[in-house]
Amino acid sequence: MDLGIRGKRALVCAASKGLGRGCAEALAAAGVDLVINARGAEVLTETARAIKEAHGVDVTTVAADITTEAGRAEVLAAAGNVDILVTNAGGPPPGMWTDWSRDDFLRAFDANMLTPIALMQACVPGMIERGWGRVVNITSQSVKAPIPALGLSNTARTGLTGFVAGMSRQVAGKGVIVNNMLPGIHDTDRANALDTKAAEAAGIDLAEARKRREASVPVGRYGTAAEFGATCAFLCSTHAGFIVGQNILLDGGATNATI
How far is CA 103 from the centre of its chain? Predict the structure, then answer.
């Protein structure tokens, strides 16, 4: 399927690996030029090289912490006018509800709620002026089915979801389409870190922890960054203009809900 976005320009955050890279790869395959961001310059540069070689698109890299004001300013200055924005940032650490302080919550809000809001506020006005734009926020399955150990993430990402619910409907009539993607467990560094903690807590090895977790997913496996990216690219396409303010769950059926 031709997604109709060849020649567009996209900013993809946290794109050096994992789900962010999956989104960047899929957009590049559709002919989209990229500005990609991550904190680690070395891995980011290698990702850009691989994407350019595979897809022949222009790729600009900005090594910066997107969750800080200085980092966002650097990224936005390099990005300029973008047609597509994919927001993404690593989730806060797991823990017990009794352990989290006000500062812990503020850090989670900054990374997983206020940063994507700030990026939308910076990029969407230009999209409105040009009459076309796409925004995809990578959030979490925990927005629909809270994960007790991830209370910081549950809280911050649900706040972002509430913001998008209203904002997306205010800009849709101006040609800008905003949606959220809610990943369940995917084969990424984040999954490995959570599995490692689970293994330590249960006194088992990492392979057994992963096997147990895979068994909890109806499809019997973890998701891949490639299939996640393909969904992102579709939501950024010309074919997704009637999908507004939705929370697209990609969890292999793990969330047991009718609606």
Answer: 23
How many whole angstroms separate alpha carbon 52 and alpha carbon 206?
35
Give the global pTM.
0.94
| Structure token pair of residue 42 | 């070395």
196 is written with which tokens?
A: 């490692």
Residues 6+ apart with CB under 8 A from 166: none
Q: What's the number of CA atoms in the CB half-sphere (13 Å) around residue 145?
A: 15
Question: How does the average pLDDT of the chain come out, rounded?
Answer: 95
The confidence band for 69, taking pLDDT boundaries of 50, 70 and 90, is: very high
pLDDT tens digits, one per residue of 90-107 = 889 889 999 999 999 999
87 φψ region: left (φ > 0), alpha (ψ -120 to 50), beta (else):
beta
The helix/strand/coil state of 221 is: coil
Are the CB atoms for 63 and 39 separated by under 8 Å? Answer: yes
Top pLDDT among 100 and 193 is at: 100
Can you tell me the distance from the alpha carbon of 252 to that of 235, in angstroms, rounded to the nearest whole number?
Answer: 18
The length of the chain, given as a count of residues: 259
pLDDT of residue 145: 92
The answer for residues whose C-beta is within 8 angstroms of residue 125's C-beta and 6 or more apart is none
> How many whole angstroms separate alpha carbon 165 and alpha carbon 93?
26
Phi, psi for residue 46 in degrees, rounded to 5? -65, -40
Q: Which tokens in the block code for residue 174?
A: 């101006």
Tokens representing 15 are 């794109």
Per-residue pLDDT of 135-145, as tens digits, reads 999 999 999 99
Q: For residue 205, which phi and psi values (nearest 5 degrees)?
A: -85, 170
Query: What φ, ψ does residue 44 adopt, rounded to 5°?
Result: -60, -45
